[in-house]
Design a protein that fits this description.
The protein is an all-alpha fold and 182 residues long. It has helices at 2-42, 48-71, 79-82, 87-122, 135-166, 170-181. The protein is elongated and about 60 Å long. The model has no long low-confidence stretch (mean pLDDT 88).
Length: 182
């Protein structure tokens, strides 16, 4: 059991690094958008490439944050109903939902790879004059994002499995370890 927890924690730490990178990309997005607005309204000029870069960064941010949101348990839940269930049923439902997320992430990963590869093979670029080239890089974020979601979902599945077997949710396990270490 301890090995499963260590492995899941290592996967969590790996995803946490990507979440921090994504956080910095949001700063880059804000700065780029501010620059584009200043150029458009004060200097009456702009760049199609820089405007396209905004949604490239936004795509990166959204795809990287899927896994980070799962790590931080920030996804939408129907807590008003879920909280009324017995703890064992809650743990079983959590394990089932983690199983579904693992399956969905795996399917989306499998489907996104040919999509990106087709873009690479044809040398897809922006149809707009002055737009960005190598659109396959943007489409390559899809397999990366879904692979990270698969990794984090598997880690969440491991934590849910341990919680169901031991009867102790992750937050209680973490609190116990902190008290034990003190």
């Amino acid at each position: 059991m301890r090995q499963l927890i260590k492995f899941a924690d290592a996967l969590d730490a790996f995803i946490d690094r990507f979440g921090r990178i994504a956080a910095w990309s949001s700063l880059a997005l804000v700065l780029l958008m501010a620059f584009n607005v200043l150029m458009r309204y004060f200097f009456r000029t702009g760049s199609v490439g820089l405007q396209e870069m905004e949604w490239h960064i936004m795509a990166f941010l959204a795809l990287m944050c899927m896994s980070y949101t799962t790590l931080k348990d920030g996804h939408v839940q129907v807590d008003i109903v879920f909280a009324r269930f017995p703890p064992r049923l809650q743990r079983a439902i959590h394990l089932f939902s983690c199983t579904l997320i693992v399956l969905i992430a795996a399917i989306l990963l499998k489907l996104s790879i040919p999509y990106m590869m087709q873009s690479y093979r044809i040398g897809e670029s922006s149809p707009d004059p002055g737009g960005l080239t190598n659109r396959w890089i943007l489409k390559g974020l899809m397999p990366l994002g879904f692979a990270l979601l698969l990794i984090q979902s598997f880690a969440a599945w491991l934590h849910a499995l341990v919680a169901l077997i031991t009867g102790m949710p992750r937050h209680e396990r973490d609190e116990r370890e902190i008290q034990h270490a003190a």
